[in-house]
């Protein structure tokens, strides 16, 4: 296009100049925008479709508050997971590779002594011994007991020999089984922790199996029970061989062993009932056996209540060695155990009858033997046992009055054990003289130690820090201190520095009054009188009667390790039962918040009060 130039030449208008103002304005805006973008962004804008296809776009992960490169994010996550797997692998190796752990603390002296004390019962077994009995010098013995007696004609094989002889006195034997069962009921967790639960249960069953043989245990009503097997009276000058006239190993006995039965023996029957009833709680998980024990206990207690009389008439063998002074305390003791085993209130009614307590000596405060727990007098044990019922279940009316009385009397008995009250004398070495300076004092001391230690555990489990002696308050630790002092004395903390438990410590009796332990186990049979040369010798026993607690020192802390003096050196079943109970009660074996098992003994007792009715259903319009 041409036009006239005002200056004289042609005027040419180009296409570029024909662009509109809007186009020029957009170009200027684009140039300005390009100047504000970086090179990468400019390349995005200017690149054509082909150029962008040749490049990969970066991917990002939006975590909400942070935007991360996806590649970096995946590397980070992978590193963390890999590190976790590596640490887990290292931990697995550490766990699987065996490594030394610090050894547990050594058992205290009471636990060590307990292991040995239980072995004494293995040494006292009669009948066919199990292969794992653990006493190498013992074997099967008295395999015809009962069968050779023309009046009985049934097997009375088994049970335990009483002491250094081979007589089976059922009265102290039954009490021993009751004590062992009581200790298991209260301290089962402790026995289990030290690996002795199966052992002591086996010993208890050995005793209760024998007790079941001594009467018609399948009947509901009986008219006789066996009081003992063997005889020991030599006072009448007879030359008839018996268990005291002869000095023989039980395995070699070839003389007749007569059986003594009784038809009116409330004390023996009630004690045997207590033994079976207590054992039924120990074996409650074995329902068939537990029920069998309960059935036998019911028949025995019924027999004892109906056929009144003492098992030890004057002049009898029983009266010479284990005389019973009364049967009223056995009624209370046996009734309490029957109640715990069955939950039947009729037994508790008998045990808490005011007249029963009076006859049993509950109010004989001036008696020199008040509070002395023995195989003959069970009242102190029954009072502690029934105080337990009041502390934890509190059955209320109509039992509360006598239970409160027993509880208060138990407090008084505990006070009498403390030296400051002068109820009993103590030797200069610290041994309590519960038998007033008489011989064989240790059996009484261990029973008192057990009751004191057990009662302190009852109080603590009931959240009671102590008890009152008159106006003065004493903590439970005072009772434990007393119990420990008696056991410490027995285990060697005495003027002679001698342990009275065979095999415990560095110094202990070497000549216990015991036939089996004193005669060599060499295959030679020594006849009735042939063994006396071993009785008279001053040499130590060839067989160690491990765990036997001997009779003990005199009132001046003196002791003679002489085999011929049974008042110093003879162990007994009943004494060792008390020792075992005392040791397990005071042993430092962690088992939980409380030392005792609060509830197992009550497992057969129904709820004390009626269950409240369920709440009414919700109101519906």
UniProtKB/TrEMBL annotation:
<feature type="domain" description="Glycoside hydrolase family 9">
    <location>
        <begin position="110"/>
        <end position="583"/>
    </location>
</feature>
<keyword id="KW-0378">Hydrolase</keyword>
<dbReference type="Pfam" id="PF00759">
    <property type="entry name" value="Glyco_hydro_9"/>
</dbReference>
<dbReference type="GO" id="GO:0008810">
    <property type="term" value="F:cellulase activity"/>
</dbReference>
<feature type="active site">
    <location>
        <position position="570"/>
    </location>
</feature>
<keyword id="KW-0326">Glycosidase</keyword>
<comment type="similarity">
    <text>Belongs to the glycosyl hydrolase 9 (cellulase E) family.</text>
</comment>
<keyword id="KW-0472">Membrane</keyword>
<dbReference type="InterPro" id="IPR018221">
    <property type="entry name" value="Glyco_hydro_9_His_AS"/>
</dbReference>
<feature type="active site">
    <location>
        <position position="513"/>
    </location>
</feature>
<dbReference type="InterPro" id="IPR008928">
    <property type="entry name" value="6-hairpin_glycosidase_sf"/>
</dbReference>
<dbReference type="InterPro" id="IPR012341">
    <property type="entry name" value="6hp_glycosidase-like_sf"/>
</dbReference>
<keyword id="KW-0624">Polysaccharide degradation</keyword>
<keyword id="KW-0136">Cellulose degradation</keyword>
<dbReference type="InterPro" id="IPR001701">
    <property type="entry name" value="Glyco_hydro_9"/>
</dbReference>
<keyword id="KW-1133">Transmembrane helix</keyword>
<feature type="region of interest" description="Disordered">
    <location>
        <begin position="1"/>
        <end position="23"/>
    </location>
</feature>
<feature type="active site">
    <location>
        <position position="561"/>
    </location>
</feature>
<dbReference type="GO" id="GO:0030245">
    <property type="term" value="P:cellulose catabolic process"/>
</dbReference>
<dbReference type="InterPro" id="IPR033126">
    <property type="entry name" value="Glyco_hydro_9_Asp/Glu_AS"/>
</dbReference>
<keyword id="KW-0812">Transmembrane</keyword>
<keyword id="KW-0119">Carbohydrate metabolism</keyword>
<feature type="transmembrane region" description="Helical">
    <location>
        <begin position="72"/>
        <end position="94"/>
    </location>
</feature>
<protein>
    <recommendedName>
        <fullName>Endoglucanase</fullName>
        <ecNumber>3.2.1.4</ecNumber>
    </recommendedName>
</protein>
